[in-house]
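Minutes, project check-in
Item: structure for the 105-residue chain
Input as provided by the requester:
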Amino acid sequence: MKKISILGAGLIGKAIAIDLHNNFEVSSFDIDEKALDYLNQTLGIKIKYIDLSDQANIVKAISDADIVVNALPGFMGFETLKTIINAGKNVVDISFFPEDPFELD
């Protein structure tokens, strides 16, 4: 089963985790304990409370992922996307940021 790491458990990240958890091994990462507790206690989704503003934490969080979903706020989006790409991971990014993503090509 493919492993998907979802960075961010806000409104969108939570919805993505809920949609994917029946067909994939989903892990959700966020600093918001309340959002993560809902995913774990209600659906049994693997969770980790983590500060994703630290790029080293992102690399650790996605180390065993087949696919990464970046659902973090836009102000964190570009640097997070760069970190995911540099880690050699496939990524789906739904964050909005003002930087040009083609700089990362």
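Outcome recorded: Residues 74-86 form the longest helix (13 residues).
No further action items on this chain.
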